[in-house]
Amino acid sequence: MRTPRAPQEPRTTRRTRRTRRYGAAGAAVLSLALALTLGAQATAVPGPAATPDPARSADPARQQIRQYEVAGLRTAQDRTALAGTGTAIDEVLHSSVLITADAGEAERLRKLGYELTPLADTAEGADFQAAAPSDYHTYASMTAAVNDTVARYPGLVSSRVIGRSHEGRDIVAVKVSANVAVDEDEPEILFTHNQHAREHLTVEMALYTLDELTSQYGRDARVTELLDTREIWLIPSVNPDGKHYDTESGAFRSWRKNRQPNSGSSSIGTDLNRNWDHMWGCCGGSSGSTSSATYRGASPESGPETRVVADFVRSRVVGGEQQITAHIDFHTYGELILWPYGYTYADTAAGLTADDRDAFVAVGREMAASNGYTAQQSSDLYITDGSINDWLWADQGIFSYTFEMYPRGASGGGFYPPGSVIDRETARNREAVLILLENADCMYRSIGKESQYCS
């Protein structure tokens, strides 16, 4: 059986060589029949039926929010150029993309030479939403569900407040492992959820994973073995203020960012998944405009929620070695599995060797084969910078993936699929989660190089 870990005991197991190499590396409803949907990275601006935020312009023309198809964007470079204007992309199609914009933003893009076609029945107020806020857990009911699980399985589950959001809400990390009270010398795996406020299905994914691991321990041999040999961390909501704001009115606001005011501006919020401290703001993959949905923040980790999670990850360095070996950041939508880097089109770059890339690909494709998602490098869609995946890999040496959950396109409900699909779409990722857990002790085993990297 496992033995407790001495708090500062140096470790020479599984990933010591790679840690030395990388530990310091830092430097709706309309279906287009002829379009091959490649997916949507979770980078959209407020959705078609969004309630205008009070901080937005008071100009009525700017408050008319619609979804548009932008034609003539066939390559990742084309899409990156559009994203570089500060416009976020809802969905990537074969030779076009879908975006959401108010009238002023649409006019600005047309002046830049983009061809925009409004989609039918997507004007603000149209009855297109596929769900109601009551279909999903609120922040309060999510917290209650976590507390209930801790109470029912005290030997398997514990939780701790790792910090607080801008508005003072607890950000909680939940640990799941046999002998959970002891910090043991085992691979650790992190799952993060709800960086983007409106992506409520990801919180349901966290609660599903928590329930499945605990209820099946001692019943399912595979789950039992994993909890006996792994330490699993879940952060069910990275952005609790945004989650609360998106639903508190009783109707979805299609809010994406956190709720932190921006100095010198009436615009609210930072895109937490552009606020991480690796290649922050480097490459046209985020916006410096406070009104943009992809606003990167005033500086790396300027979002308090980003800093809380980054500090938690840094706290898992024990004896000079990062204990977390693998990670999934859950988003919606697009049914994708993405890996680093997002800031460059290159398959390999500083801190990402051919072997590293091959291990990412092998495990990513195995997971995708289990859930039917599309596996690809993040920048195959378009450039993003300051993302959690790039930081976790380049700065901490953690194999970090993004899962873009259901649906594949806007016709499935976009960011708000109906509650009737929650059980199906969370369970759909059970096998993929188990695959990552099983590979987490040596990701290089997937390419036949266990002896080289994991001795």
UniProtKB/TrEMBL annotation:
Taxonomic lineage from the root = Bacteria, Bacillati, Actinomycetota, Actinomycetes, Kitasatosporales
In alphabetical order, the GO MF annotations are: metallocarboxypeptidase activity; zinc ion binding
Family, similarity comment: Belongs to the peptidase M14 family.
Query: Which species?
Result: Streptomyces xiamenensis
**One Pfam family for this entry, by name?**
Peptidase_M14
Q: What's a single GO BP term from this record?
A: proteolysis
Put simply, this protein is called: Zinc carboxypeptidase
Q: Residue ranges of the Peptidase M14 domain?
A: 135-440
Active site positions, chain numbering:
E404 (proton donor/acceptor)
Co-factor(s): Zn(2+)
Q: Does the keyword Lipoprotein apply?
A: no
Q: Which SMART domains would you find in this protein's record?
A: Zn_pept
Q: List the biased-composition ranges (Low complexity).
A: 1-10
Q: Which domain of life is it from?
A: Bacteria
Q: Which UniProt keywords apply?
A: Carboxypeptidase, Hydrolase, Metal-binding, Metalloprotease, Protease, Signal, Zinc
